[in-house]
Give the backbone structure.
Amino acid sequence: MSDAPAPRRAEVFRYRGLSVGTSRLSAAYELDGRSFVEDVTLEGVGDLTAPAARAVATLWYLVAGLSYFKAGAARRVDLGDTPVGPAGRRLLAAALHDGLAEFALRNALDLDDVVIEGGAALEPVTATLDPERVLVPFGGGIDSVVTVSALPRHLDRALFVVSPASGRFAALEAAAAVTGLDVVRATRVLDPAVATGDPALWRGHVPVTAMVTLLAALAAVADGRGGVVMSNERSASVPNLVIGGREVNHQWSKSWAAERALAEALAESVGPTLTVASLLRDRSEIWVGRAFADLPPYHHAFRSCNRAFAQDPSRRLDHWCNECDKCLFVNLVLAPFLDRATLRGIFGGEPLADPARLAQLRTLVGRGVTHKPFECVGDPDESAVALRAVAVDPAWSDVAHVADLAAELDAPSLEELLDPYGPTGVPAHWLR
């Protein structure tokens, strides 16, 4: 048994300063006197010290601080002399309360008492950017692959890839290589106390996609690019559960609410010439699955299993584990659009046909004993529609639990989920 002290609520979390070099950021924070530093190095971009780039770096600095705020869940957040406007404050508050809602739930914390104070006046700048040049944050899964493939070729496209200090992810690099596009890179070096998991500090999920989005925006502005093309579909806005009136959404930083908060804060800081939006915002995961099925060059290059992206390289798998919720969901959403043999060849197994995965499958389709998993998976309707489509396919007739579970479901039609629906911030020139 460990003798380390249990985590306790801190009193004050302070923003101690952001150092910006030509290609490197160094962010300093303090939690009740304990210091943390995160470093980020970017490759393939212009000078980060230019005024517009520095303004975007400041927004990243604010949101990235939550990785260290959570270590003590301080009751007071002091922004010090960090320049921030009203939209930037709203973004930080939303990222703290909504982006950390899962963290708060898992650790039985109430963050409603957190007060954000301090900060200096923002002096906005206007970035001069080319709207025909875009940067695509790329994670190597079906969503970002479909985005890259769907963007019109008249756009100057490049990928944006974030790697940890421990080294690049082989699964991501393999899919990126298939695109044939240039890669702009960022390497994050987390403070060792957070990276290694000090038992005296709280751990848990943070709005990492919001942090990546802001790093991509920084890279875009530094390189004169006018667009950051995200790959977040509409079910990312659906919460896992609602407690006490607050939505708890594992994918909050991929949601429409987060997209708008990010866009407004960026516009406040660098003007309207930078567009940050998700190409897939009004699309379902079913639509994405169908689109990906038509991209065979990627079928054996991509991998969405979380075990391929462990921070410790020695723990990374070089294959689909076929056991986790992510493997099961991706297998399920592709099954209506790829023949069974092809699907088995991609995954090296059949999680959908595995009786040991039945409880997980029931949860994905909304018939489990708990809420949707805290994973980047679609909403229950999307999973239910995919399962019903598989159940009527003769190739799957030998899998009894698929047919039995599908018979319990009442879900929209496959065709309904293939239609675009809902709000989107995508500009017309990204579509033609």
User: Anything to note?
Assistant: The chain has two domains: 12-129+137-141+156-278, 285-418. The chain has a mean pLDDT of 94. The chain has 16 helices and twelve strands.
